[in-house]
Amino acid sequence: MNLKRKTIALSKFVLAAMLLWSCDKSAESTFGIKVEAEETVYEYEPADNGAGPMWCHGNTCIARFGDHVVVSGLETLQEVKPLHNTRWMLFERTDKGWEMLLKDEKGRTREPSPLGVINDGKILLSVNPTLTEPDSYNGPAEPQVLQFDAEDIRATYETLLPVWEGAPEFTEHSYRSFAVDGPSNELILFQNIGYTHAEWSFLDGDGNWKSQGKLTWPWEDSYDEPRAVRVCYPAVQLKDREVHFLGVSDIIEPNKAWKDYKFELTGRKWDYDFRRLFYTFSKDIVNDSFQDWVEVASREETGGHIFPCDLWLAPDGLVHILWTERALDERLREEFFPDEKQSHALNYAILKEGEVIFRQPIMLSEQEDELQPGRGRFQVTPENRLFIFYYVHNENNDFMENRIVEVLADHSLSAPVKVELQRPFSNFFTATVRGGSAPSNMIDVYGKDDKNEMRYARIKILPR
């Protein structure tokens, strides 16, 4: 696929956005909130295999179906060596608290298992069990989708085997993306193959693997060694067979001078690049191919950092996106760009047919002593109001809190409202429409802070 150059660095649009961003400080809040629950779901032991319960960032591991709230967890198998030393678990919130319903008794895997729900009452779990022996370090895997009855998750589940184009060689490093269109009872699964492309397979509402294909990564010929730019940790949405895909570059440092300098600092021969934000879409996954890649944002010139947070396809066809952005790599600053200023931002943009038509920071920090934004997620209500739940902290992380802000119809921002949590979430999933959960005035949050616990909070958005 070709790459359309449409990158606008933060410094080029921040002045135009400052008036809107100032609404963050002066506007009145348009809503109230109430924390209705805050609980620990389970504790875990680190698997030391390069993954963890939050590793499938762009997906979600929590879903709401009516009054049911279900999460997937990751159990470390103490007697098994990495990499395939974990297994999936399923929990449901009951009147008695969180109850583990099922766990995998047969398979082993490396990564957490994304979760979804469809409107005919099925819970869907994307799993990637290894096909290796227990003493194998790595090797082949078999992508599967497990289908449970939402009303009786403990009942026998059905194993769905995606149909692929050809015979892809999948491994435990799936970097997979699992998106569910709840109202249409349809899903799409992406799973990476090395550094070249992702395989994808689409399941229609009749239970047929209707179409399959390859999503080829953008090509970059300006690097010291031209190469494909692997795109990982995407936020993906499937809606009425439209597919929208927002991910970040994830390749070994392409700048030889920076790579050599970082090797002197760390002693590691690898250091990964997360500094280019890419977007593509298909208007009809059954009949149309993906469009050319669009580079939405970049911190390539100063070795900064970008990470995708969320994506929402609105009823009017506009695509809302959210990502974090750090201006530069402090390790490289003195040697390569001593005059550049550091900044941290949680950024928001709107795309139309692949074109960025609006962007602004939700929160921007340009001073060392300022609070900094962390990751965020959209919350869509039944009235299609758009809220953002996000993390705020200081440099030393001795100040941490979560906030919620509303994006208003004119794209200005309400004043943020602090969420009064005992333990704020630094990294989290939500019960999102991208996972099939219905729009709601209830924000179901599932994630963690700095402890080895997965926690849950239910936050109600109140009228004002």
Descriptors for this entry?
Methylamine Dehydrogenase, Chain H, mainly beta, 464 residues
Brief account:
The chain has 464 residues and is mostly beta strands. The chain has helices at 10-21, 23-26, 256-266, 330-336, and strands spanning 3-4, 31-43, 62-65, 68-76, 86-94, 97-103, 115-118, 122-127, 144-149, 158-160, 177-181, 186-193, 197-203, 209-216, 219-220, 227-228, 231-239, 242-249, 251-252, 272-273, 276-282, 293-298, 305-313, 319-326, 344-352, 355-365, 372-380, 386-393, 400-407, 417-419, 427-430, 442-448, 453-463.
Structure description:
The protein is mainly beta and 464 residues long. It has a single domain (3-463), classed as YVTN repeat-like/Quinoprotein amine dehydrogenase (Methylamine Dehydrogenase, Chain H), CATH 2.130.10. The protein is 7% helix and 47% strand. It is built from four helices and 33 strands. It has helices spanning 10-21, 23-26, 256-266, 330-336, and strands at 3-4, 31-43, 62-65, 68-76, 86-94, 97-103, 115-118, 122-127, 144-149, 158-160, 177-181, 186-193, 197-203, 209-216, 219-220, 227-228, 231-239, 242-249, 251-252, 272-273, 276-282, 293-298, 305-313, 319-326, 344-352, 355-365, 372-380, 386-393, 400-407, 417-419, 427-430, 442-448, 453-463. The strands form nine sheets. A five-stranded mixed beta sheet has the order 1-22-21-18-17, with no helix packed on it. It has a four-stranded antiparallel beta sheet with strand order 2-33-32-31, with no helix packed on it. A four-stranded antiparallel beta sheet has the order 3-4-5-6, with no helix packed on it. It is globular. The protein starts with a strand and ends with a strand. The relative contact order is 0.17. Mean pLDDT is 93; it is low at 6-26.
